[in-house]
Amino acid sequence: MTHNNSFLTAVHLNYTFEDGPLHVLADISLRIERGAFVVIVGPSGVGKSTLLRLLAGLLRPSTGQITLDNQPASAARDPIGLVFQRDNLMPWRTVTENVRLPLELQGKNGRTTQQRVQEMIELVGLAGFEGSYPAQLSGGMAQRVALARALVHEPELLLLDEPFGALDALTRERMGQELLRIWQAMPVTVFMVTHSIAEAVLLADEVLVMGGDPGNGRPATITHHIPIHLSRPRQFAMQSTAEFQEYAAQIRAAIQQ
Ligand SMILES: Nc1ncnc2c1ncn2[C@@H]1O[C@H](COP(=O)(O)OP(=O)(O)O)[C@@H](O)[C@H]1O
Ligand SMILES: [Mg+2]
Asked: Model confidence over 61-97: pLDDT tens digits?
């Protein structure tokens, strides 16, 4: 096996849903550095969630390899945090109990576990809501709980599938900033799917564009790798700069190709 500095690599991935069969992903290769924030965009139905599920180890590639830390990826071993568009919180559990769940599943429930859970609740800005139930939270707050739950077991990789897709525009902007703050506070590599070009430019070190055959869109591959050289910390006001808008235009053009 070749060793390099990449944290997450995918090499010549293909994926076919056998009931069809539907060849969704073709020859996907990518390399993500440790600690990077990578965002993938592309038309609806192109295969973004399928790629994320492959990286999460929830699906097995039809052909090709995924390595994490130079080892073959395996869902059983690798600490990965996952957040989807729907928060998937357990309605009968409080905020604290939802965030604690991954640690409970690891058999942890001591004092340090409680401290860790409390730290995560504070990190995502939910201090004071520890005893609230999901039905008592706004959509943005529920996604904060989902983020805390995804990060509480200190995963090295955080996979986010349109995590703010169901939120209103203002909450979504706020959550993007919060996500950047959390990412900077933790040693975690982020791979995120979004359909918002502005969100992609604002958050990412690199934007990957996924596209398919111009005819039926299938199978899809990564057509563009676009590094974003905006300085950090990123501020919302950067959106009005010419540099930001050039990136956005470049990505929009890449998606439409
Ligand atoms: N479990 C499945 N079985 C069969 N086809 C699926 C399954 N999940 C997704 N697909 C199909 O694979 C394609 C890619 O889906 P998906 O990865 O969800 O796209 P995206 O996240 O980019 O919108 C779509 O055509 C979708 O209908
Ligand atoms: Mg999807």
From this structure: 999 999 998 888 776 566 899 999 998 999 999 999 9
What is the set of domains in the chain, with CATH numbers?
Answer: 1-78+192-257 (3.40.50.300)
Predicted structure pTM score: 0.95
Query: Ligand 1: does its nearest atom lie under 6 Å from the Cβ of 50?
Result: yes
DSSP-derived letter for residue 215 is: T
As beta bridge partners, residue 17 has: 22
Neighbours of ion ligand 2 (CB under 5 A): 49
209-226 pLDDT, tens digit per residue, is 999 877 777 899 999 999
38: helix, strand or coil: strand
Structure tokens at 195: 């359909």
Q: Which residue, by CA, sits nearest to atom 6 of ligand 1?
A: 17
Alpha helices in the chain (DSSP H): 48-55, 95-105, 111-123, 139-151, 169-185, 197-203, 242-256
